[in-house]
């Protein structure tokens, strides 16, 4: 491809070299540069990509895109741009022929509920014979292929390549989770979103965003990029701010909720231990919905999917059928073991709000105690301390007994994290035991459980590893539970 085509619509200053050259690839990591490739130098969090320009040239880069004034030797074309992450998104979209213009792209943002909403939508689309790709926490799904992602929302170059793969596989639709971090870092720039969904906003990732206001503004950026529909949770405080802000926009606003007035709303909700039944009301009529997951959170997540499917012209019967076809979602209130005495549930709750929701969803159906096994993933600084305090308070108030343990401590002081959680539980008179090793913590919870107790293992959900230092250690909670229960016999 000609470099001039790759840099179409890019705002740049030509520092040196020729623009009329053939290039064959783009990379933002010098180690991935090949002969006649383009290298885009990104200023990273741990290192500055500009440091690797010589390495990129050694590997054969024909063109370099930079954002800093930097002297570069050699016969190479150099372009300077104001923001290399934005430039990366632009050249990637050009290189892959703007794939999002050839597909129906649905973006979901919000603190919690993105993954589950994705799965409800996938089911509705697939039950009606429409293939749909997924990009999110669980990975990238194209047909039968599941590819693990480093990030919930991958870097723009990887993202555009994935969209192009979807178009090549004849996928007309894609639903993706859009993290606030990705919106701030321009990972989704130059992607055209037909629909944007906002689920909710509660404290999380404040180590990246500092304040809730900043966190909200990052999420809100998605709705400046949508062309057709904005689907917003009217029961969420931040959702209502967004609703006010989006009035009068060209893309259509559709709200959903249970408590506040909304275009798509639920009534006659009946909660059961493993499913929920309710009636959904839409401008085109009402229908009974069965969700095979317990609790109000899955009423909300299914409503988000219903509102989106409604905009995509699915019938109410197709929608109801699609939601009911979701048997459960990996690591989302997943019952990994049950016998006549005990029930053991794994859930991905790793924020104070989701932990409270998980515990209060289980409570009405627990005949005995709720024993909670949890930790707080490594988040440094003041926001990390606040998170530990808040999660400890939820554990003390909503669980009968907590086993405090590790959750991806990475390179942080794990003993300090656990000590701070314990202090938080003591401050609220909670009952606890601290056991650093997560496997031992699970075994302990099982050992102390009595007839009718429910054990909730929170934080890792579908994940199958634990990150200690820089090492990723295999850690599959469902398997561990089965192993421990097996050894008991
Ligand atoms: C803090 C953060 O955002 N880090 C992301 C960032 O890494 P980084 O800036 O540290 O990269 P770096 O190592 O400093 O390297 C800077 C640049 O130099 C380049 N480099 C580096 C070494 C070399 O030899 N040659 C070279 O060219 C790198 O390729 C990169 O372009 O850029 C990488 C490439 O895009 C990301 O994978 C990485 O995400 C890490 C894994 C991460 O944990 N990110 C989290 C915070 C995140 O993004 N989370 C959100 C989800 C949040 C949610 O749950 O809502 C997400 O969307 O995943
Ligand atoms: N609507 C909701 N409100 C609050 N908590 C929720 C909601 N939906 C799910 N949760 C809780 O949050 C956890 C994560 O849910 P889910 O994976 O759907 O969210 P997510 O937005 O994809 O999260 P992440 O970005 O961290 O991957 C669930 O295991 C559950 O405990």
Automatic annotation (TrEMBL):
Carboxylation is probably crucial for Mg(2+) binding and, consequently, for the gamma-phosphate positioning of ATP. Its main location: cytoplasm. Its EC number is 6.3.2.-. It is an enzyme of class 6 (ligase). The modification N6-carboxylysine is found at residue 219. Residues 108-309 form the Mur ligase central domain. Transmembrane segments: none annotated. Residues 331-461 form the Mur ligase C-terminal domain. UDP-N-acetyl-alpha-D-muramoyl-L-alanyl-D-glutamate binds at residues 30, 151-153, 179, 187. It is found in: Cytoplasm. Keywords: ATP-binding, Cell cycle, Cell division, Cell shape, Cell wall biogenesis/degradation, Cytoplasm, Ligase, Magnesium, Nucleotide-binding, Peptidoglycan synthesis. ATP binds at residues 110-116. Catalyzes the addition of an amino acid to the nucleotide precursor UDP-N-acetylmuramoyl-L-alanyl-D-glutamate (UMAG) in the biosynthesis of bacterial cell-wall peptidoglycan. Belongs to the MurCDEF family. MurE subfamily. This is UDP-N-acetylmuramyl-tripeptide synthetase. It comes from Paenibacillus prosopidis.
């Amino acid at each position: 491809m000609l470099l001039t085509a790759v840099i179409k619509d890019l705002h740049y200053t030509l520092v040196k070299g020729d623009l009329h050259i053939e290039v064959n690839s783009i990379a933002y990591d010098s180690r991935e540069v090949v002969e006649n490739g383009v290298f885009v130098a990104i200023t990273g969090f741990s290192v500055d990509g500009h440091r690797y320009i010589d390495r990129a040239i050694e590997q054969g880069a024909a063109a370099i895109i930079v954002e800093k004034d930097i002297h570069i030797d050699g016969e190479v074309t150099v372009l300077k741009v104001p923001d290399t992450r934005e430039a990366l998104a632009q050249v990637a979209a050009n290189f892959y022929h703007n794939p999002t213009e050839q597909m129906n792209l649905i973006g979901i943002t919000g603190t919690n509920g993105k993954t589950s909403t994705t799965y409800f939508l996938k089911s509705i689309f697939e039950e009606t014979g429409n293939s749909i790709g997924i990009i999110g926490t669980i990975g990238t799904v194209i047909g039968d292929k599941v590819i693990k992602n480093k990030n919930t929302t991958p870097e723009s170059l990887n993202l555009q390549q994935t969209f192009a793969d979807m178009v090549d596989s004849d996928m007309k639709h894609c639903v993706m989770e859009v993290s606030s971090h990705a919106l701030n870092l321009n990972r989704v720039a130059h992607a055209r979103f037909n629909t944007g969904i906002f689920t909710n906003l509660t404290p999380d990732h404040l180590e990246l965003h500092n304040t809730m206001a900043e966190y909200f503004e990052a999420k809100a950026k998605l709705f400046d990029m949508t062309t057709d529909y904005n689907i917003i949770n009217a029961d969420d405080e931040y959702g209502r701010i967004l609703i006010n802000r989006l009035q009068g926009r060209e893309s259509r606003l559709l709200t959903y909720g249970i408590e506040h007035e909304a275009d798509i709303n639920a009534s006659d909700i009946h909660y059961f231990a493993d499913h929920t039944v309710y009636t959904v009301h839409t401008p085109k009529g009402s229908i009974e919905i069965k969700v095979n997951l317990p609790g109000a959170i899955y009423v909300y997540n299914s409503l988000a999917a219903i509102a989106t499917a409604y905009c995509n012209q699915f019938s109410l019967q197709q929608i109801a059928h699609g939601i009911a076809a979701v048997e459960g979602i990996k690591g989302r209130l997943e019952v990994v073991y049950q016998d006549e005495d005990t029930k053991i549930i794994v859930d991905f709750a790793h924020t104070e709000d989701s932990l409270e929701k998980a515990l209060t969803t289980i409570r009405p159906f627990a005949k005995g105690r709720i024993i909670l096994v949890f930790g707080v993933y490594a988040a440094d600084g003041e926001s990390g301390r606040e998170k530990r305090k808040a999660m400890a308070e939820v554990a003390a108030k909503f669980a009968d007994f907590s086993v405090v343990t590790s959750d991806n401590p990475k390179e942080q002081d794990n003993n300090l994290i656990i000590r701070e959680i314990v202090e938080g539980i003591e401050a609220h008179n909670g009952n606890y035991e601290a056991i650093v090793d997560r496997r031992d913590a699970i075994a302990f919870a099982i050992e102390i459980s009595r007839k009718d107790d429910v054990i909730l293992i929170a934080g890792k959900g579908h994940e199958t590893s634990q990150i200690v230092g820089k090492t990723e250690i295999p850690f599959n909670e469902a398997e561990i539970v089965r192993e421990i229960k097996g050894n008991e016999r």
